[in-house]
Amino acid sequence: MSPSLREVAAYLDAYLHVADVEDDARALNGLQVENDGTVTHIAVAVDACQATIDGAVALGADLLLVHHGLFWGGLEPLTGRHGKRVRALIRHNIALYAAHVPLDLHPDVGNNVVLARALGLAELEFFGDLKGQRIGVRGTLSTTRAAFLATLGDTLGVAPFVIEAGPSEITCVGIITGGGGSMIHDALDAGVDTFVTGEGAHHTYFDAEESGINVVYAGHYATETVGVKALAKHLEQRFDLTWEFLDHPTGL
Q1: How far apart, in whole angstroms, are the C-alpha atoms of residue 252 and residue 250?
Q2: How many CB atoms lie within 10 A of CB 106?
Q3: 250 by DSSP, 3-state: which?
Q4: Strand 41-47 and strand 242-245: pairing?
Q5: Model-level pTM?
């Protein structure tokens, strides 16, 4: 028997500690759009955009699980493209659940820890302060910078931009997926010699260069594909639900 949407949403709220994790007010973590009350097939994506909503429709999904929800633009009227997205979800009976920072820092299915494990990091620890929360993951790894970058590229399917300001023989890697370029100094404080994130501002080149740390920009989108997939696998095991990933890369 298929679980109810209420049951799945309540489980996700508790499992991801949604009520306890500080986040941007626009994230609106949790259930953002309801369906008629059941879940049989899940579509998974990084972003709730028209392309992924249309993809969920094509898959016949009744739940779309995303990292970035509908409301990053702030308060908007239900007109234009925003209204089109919401109408499509409701018309096709698709619920929408979003998990932003709660998914980034989760110790089992979080973007950071999942990527760290995929890259073979050992002795994992959390580091970095975001609204009083430890969000990043650091771990040990004995390899060359070139070999590490090859593994990262293969894992995420990207050609990362690299600031080669640290050692060519690396021993400690820190990861904060998405827009973590502003947290280079947190990585330095954690003793990291190579920092992996999605993207950063122009001035972070000099932060890396003058601090002697390797900084790897592997793409905001690419680095945040891993958590939603891990969460979907968890729901598959917990509720015996099928799921499919909707890949809609931005190249950013």
Answers
A1: 5
A2: 22
A3: coil
A4: parallel
A5: 0.96
Place of tokens 């931005």: 250
Q: What is the pLDDT of residues 21-36, one digit of tens each?
A: 999 999 999 999 999 9
CA distance 203 to 200: 8
- CB-CB neighbours of 76 under 10 Å: 14
Q: For residue 152, how far is the Cα from the chain centroid?
A: 16
Q: Is the CB of residue 238 less than 8 Å from the CB of residue 37?
A: no
User: Residues with Cβ < 8 Å from 239, sequence gap 6 or more?
Assistant: 3, 7, 8, 11, 39
- Please, which residues have CB within 8 angstroms of residue 234's CB and are 6 or more apart in sequence? 15, 108, 109
Only one residue has tokens 């209420």, namely 6
Reported residue count of the chain is 252
Q: Characterize 107-123 residue by residue with b for buried, 16 or more Cβ atoms within 10 angstroms of its Cβ, and e for exposed.
A: eebbbbbbbbeebebee
Q: Could you identify the residue written with the tokens 């050609």?
A: 159
- Contact, 235 vs 8, CB < 8 A? yes
DSSP 192-225: -SEEEES---TTHHHHHHHHT-EEEE--HHHHTH
Q: Which tens digit of pLDDT belongs to each residue from 62-119?
A: 999 999 999 998 889 999 999 999 999 999 999 999 999 999 999 999 999 999 999 9
> Amino acid letter at 189?
D
Q: What is the DSSP string of 153-196?
A: HHHHT---EEE--S-SEEEEEEEE-SS-GGGHHHHHHTT-SEEE
In whole angstroms, what is the distance from residue 173 CA to residue 170 CA?
Answer: 8
- The tokens for 189 are 């404080």
